[in-house]
TrEMBL record:
The name this protein goes by in its record: Hpt domain-containing protein
Record bears the keyword Phosphoprotein: yes
Pfam families: Hpt
InterPro entries registered for this protein in UniProt: HPT_dom_sf (IPR036641), Sig_transdc_His_kin_Hpt_dom (IPR008207)
Keywords for this protein: Phosphoprotein, Two-component regulatory system
Annotated GO biological process: phosphorelay signal transduction system
Protein's UniProt keywords contain Phosphoprotein: yes
């Protein structure tokens, strides 16, 4: 595989790379069409930097979400969901951005996410990072 600006030229394309990583290309983890558009517009170098920034900051956001959930602080929980959603949208992580959107909406209406929702969000972040690794944007979680 050849490297181009941090993103591998993927045999079998994006769908093939996801499948090799055990991620169904149609399971919603990655919005493939949006990813292709973003990649074409901004290039692999910028996407790699955004992915690295997301990886570096996601743990702190998830920890802050856990703290907000424990304190039943819907405003703080919503802020963390909004932060994660922004990065997820930029990286075309469809399922993650959708989950964040739902939890942020609930928080906006005063309903603080519970521990199960926070755990689901954490698992989805990990799944999204795995997709970014499969695409060559990251080398590890």
């Amino acid at each position: 595989m050849r490297m181009t600006g941090g993103v591998r030229m993927l045999p079998g394309g994006i769908a093939g790379a996801l499948q090799r990583a055990g991620i169904g290309p149609d399971d919603g983890t990655l919005d493939v069409m949006a990813f292709e558009t973003i990649l074409a517009e901004f290039g692999p170098d910028l996407l790699s930097r955004v992915a690295a920034s997301f990886r570096a900051e996601a743990q702190g956001a998830l920890d802050a979400l856990d703290t907000a959930v424990a304190a039943r602080d819907a405003v703080a929980a919503g802020q963390q969901c909004h932060f994660i959603k922004g990065s997820a949208l930029y990286l075309a992580l469809g399922r993650l951005s959708g989950l964040c959107e739902r939890l942020e909406g609930e928080a906006r209406s005063g309903e603080c996410p519970g521990p199960d929702a926070a755990a689901s969000l954490r698992a989805e972040v990990i799944h999204g990072l795995d997709a970014l690794i499969a695409l060559g944007l990251l080398t590890d979680r």
